[in-house]
Amino acid sequence: MAVADYVLQTDEHPSADQVWTRVQQTFPHISRATVYNTLRLFVEKGLLRQYAITEGCVVFDPNVAPHHHIIDEETGAIHDVPWDAVDIGKPPKVRGFEVREYQVVMRGRKKR
Questions:
Q1: Which of 39, 48, 76, 111 is the most exposed place for a label (fewest CB within 10 A)?
Q2: Angle, alpha carbons 85-43-81 (nearest 5°)
Q3: CB contact at 8 A, 61 and 48
Q4: Cα separation, 103 vs 6, whole angstroms
Q5: Please, what is the Cα angle at 38 between 12 and 33, to 5 degrees?
Q6: Is the separation of the CB atoms in 71 and 61 below 8 Å?
Q7: Secondary structure letter of residue 71 according to DSSP
Q8: pLDDT tens digit string along 33-89?
Q9: Strand order of the sheet with strand 67-72?
Q10: Judging by beta carbons within 10 Å of its beta carbon (0-12, 13-18, 19+), is residue 101 exposed, middle or buried?
């Protein structure tokens, strides 16, 4: 329950290790394997989305509705962008593929 309590309610896009670190604050004896297995189950059941948005780092997103992302280049924080805020028209046709889903990942800095 501790994994669900955190990861299904967060506005962040945590990695598995970040979920483990956060849950350990409440349940110090929870294993990494338990956290990883729980996250995998939540992804399989459609409760979370898993993204490799930044190179070498997989993050989890409880917002399973269609949306895009923007990465703050200064902090590394990943923010949701409403689907309708980005107008890209129809998804491109890719020869030999049936496009199942797509998203736009933007990078930028907050205006000062």
A1: 111
A2: 10
A3: yes
A4: 25
A5: 105
A6: no
A7: E
A8: 999 999 999 999 999 999 998 778 899 999 999 999 999 999 999 999 999 999 887
A9: 78-82, 67-72, 105-108
A10: exposed
Q: Which residues are bridge partners to 51 per DSSP?
A: 59
> Maximum CA pair distance of the chain?
50
Q: Say what the pTM is.
A: 0.85
What are the start and end residues of each CATH 1.10.10.10 domain in the chain? 2-61
Q: Which residues contact 100 (CB under 8 A, 6 or more apart)?
A: none
Phi-psi region of 22 (alpha: psi -120 to 50; beta: other; left: phi over 0): alpha
**Number of C-alpha atoms within 13 angstroms, CB side, residue 32?**
4
The CATH code that applies to domain 2-61 is: 1.10.10.10
Given pLDDT bands bounded at 50, 70 and 90, which one contains residue 99?
confident
> 3-state DSSP call for residue 28?
coil
The rounded distance, in Å, linking the Cα atoms of 91 and 102 is: 7
